[in-house]
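Record type: monomer structure entry
Structure origin: computed from sequence
Chain ID: A
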Amino acid sequence: MNHVAIDLGASGGTVFLGSVTSSSFTVEEVYRFDNRPIDRDGRYVWDLDTLVDHITAGLDAAADHTDGLDTVGIDTWGLDFGLLEDGELLRAPTSYRDPEAAATCEELFDVAGKRRLFEATGIANWNTPNALWQLHTIAEYDPELLERADELLMIPQLLSLLVGGRPIGEVTVASTTQMVDPESRTWAIDLLEELGLPTDLLPSLAEPGERLGTVDERVAPDPDAPPELLAPASHDTAAAVAGLPLTDDAAFLNTGSWFILGVERDEPVRTTAAFEHSLSNELGVDDTVRLLKNVNGFFLLEECRSAWREAREPTDYEHLLSAARRAPPRAALVDPDADAFSIEGSMPEQVRSYCRRTDQPVPTGQGGVVRCLLDSLVTKTALVLDQLATAVDETPTRIALGGGGVRNELFCQLLADATDRTVTAGPVEATAVGNLLTQAIAVGTLSDIEAGRRLIRASFEPTTYEPAGAGGWDREKNKMRDLPTD
């Protein structure tokens, strides 16, 4: 069967055509586009009309590569949502990057308590405005909007609705909201009622594979034979982890605008150690749970590229990585999660300012800035890996790497060195692979995710990076621990 995976990240989107049988798997990129929050009426929001236009163009491109399309699945970033009234969007969804998205989070923490939030939802991510924080802010600042709304849909389900699907919730992306009980895999109604937040807006939750209808004739390449619309693992991280050849001894690292590092488990981990290290339990396919932590990832590099593009400087990766190889290694570090790094302003200058303020050598040129960011990202990842090992009382012996970092050989080697772990990189498009696999499971081609992972191992050859010497990054990890987060 021919499946289409529409993979939308917070900085770009890609459409893939895949064919899956019980013994073969092929995937082909057919369309790619940029995506970024836009400034509209003082808010950073997502331009859904443009995204639907790109989805339509991507489906047309997929149809040009084959005789017919059978199913379509959309995955996106988590956290963000749209509010609807009678099926119509009330306003463009706010981006979690908007500075005001979590304006009342401290009030929320005072009322509920971070420990209570963690115990109820398994989420201990305190540096990213998730749906709960955003909903609380709307309730405080714009209660009339909530009074009008009769439905809340996360971004992948909202897009699915706009291209013809019925409105539902899907557990993998819903679990990023800090509004889901990871044990029952249902909405944490008691918590929301305690906070005085509406619960009648919340859709019923389905597991990956739910059938949503068919693609609308306005969007389908062939209106007489529209493909079926499915809900895959619709959170891009859940899809990426499903698409990795994961084994029990491995941690996963999905690299994109965010780095998501974690381990897969059968049950949520809500221990004191998990809470103290700000680890979160997000839901995966086949009743799995991903114990993980988010690190601000290639967003910083992409914002640098955007600034350099505006300055008419070269921004292709080959040039930037070549310059980074020539730059002094480990000369300066920044904490990628520091509040100092914002969507507003010049990111290269933000990096230099942070280094100047922390009495470190100030990176010069593009190569210096890129090397500083890569060294910082792998150091922060190594620290989080130590925290994960403490929380689960075992040490992953390797890292299964997916996402855009797979193509970056310098980053992959630095990651192996900093973590002192073997890194197996690939498939390159793990998110699309996982999206396609969950579609194949939904239509009965594959029995479950383990059968899918066996097929991945047989179909894709990963690239392996071994650490160059034992240890050697303790100084950098100690420095990272002491860096300011403001």
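Annotation 1: Residues 365-392 form the longest helix (28 residues).
Annotation 2: The longest strand covers residues 25-34.
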